[in-house]
Specification:
CATH architecture of the largest domain: Up-down Bundle
Largest sheet: 4 strands, mixed
Helix content: 40-55%
Strand content: 15-25%
Number of domains: 2
Shape: globular
Length: 242
């Protein structure tokens, strides 16, 4: 497994033999392509078709973010791990309501269990009283297992996450990192901005790992498959976001 490279400054991306070169105001930086899996690009960079061909040949993904840190899209090499049988099986599971619900429940209960693990860690580490929130999350996990529809399951997941967020101010002590409530687009304070940014990183990381398999990121189980975006990475990322 190669490294993830974060490009935060502006400049030019190009190749020289089997090396990626980042050239900017601070000079040149050389990155061996053999040890690089993906590049997360936050700065304003120039690149050309020759560089993209080089990335394709070496299976290096490029993830682009705008000036505000919002994920914009991914350049990924032409699919090199195609399996029609796997894609058909994945689609079959998505179209089968029982199978889809079974898989979706695993994503939600996995996410809630990791919320509990995170709170248990801070409860032990900081001697903070979080037992009541952990108990509520256990209830939500049990509710999730009983649901008979995807929309109801997503409602449980949303309620569990809201419950989880109520612990944040207890953990941080408030102050300059007070959360008060979860806010998005735009996030209203520092901790909300941090959560949104890290969630975005989680989605991109998950997408990059899916690309290394035969499964298709466009076919999701918890999040609806549509014409606008990938959905399977959103499903899997739920487990790791806590």
């Amino acid at each position: 497994m190669g490294k993830t490279l974060y490009v935060l400054s502006s400049g030019e991306l190009k190749r020289k033999e089997n090396t990626i070169i980042i050239e900017g105001s601070e000079g040149r930086k050389f990155i061996p392509v053999e040890t690089t899996d993906e590049m997360l690009i936050f700065g304003e960079v120039d690149l050309n078709k020759r560089f993209l061909e080089f990335c394709t040949a070496n299976k290096v993904m490029l993830h682009f973010f705008n000036h505000y840190g919002y994920y914009q899209g991914t350049f990924y090499p032409r699919e090199h791990m195609n399996s029609g049988a796997v894609i058909l099986a994945q689609a079959k599971h998505c179209l089968d309501d029982c199978r889809r619900l079974f898989i979706a429940k695993k994503f939600v209960t996995g996410a809630i269990e990791n919320m509990k693990k995170a709170l248990q860690y801070y409860s032990r580490r900081g001697n903070i009283e979080l037992d009541s929130i952990i108990e509520k999350l256990t209830v939500f996990s049990n509710y999730a297992k009983e649901q008979i529809g995807i929309s109801e399951l997503m409602g449980i997941e949303g309620n569990a996450r809201d419950c989880y967020y109520t612990a944040f101010d207890l953990i941080t002590g408030g102050g300059s990192f007070s959360m008060k409530k979860r806010s998005r687009r735009p996030p209203q304070n520092r901790i909300n901005a941090l959560i949104s940014f890290l969630n975005s990183m989680c989605y991109v990381t998950t997408l990059a790992q899916i690309y290394k398999t035969h499964i298709d990121p466009r076919i999701g189980f918890l999040h609806e498959t549509n014409f606008r975006r990938f959905s399977l990475n959103l499903d899997i990322a739920e487990i790791f976001k806590p």
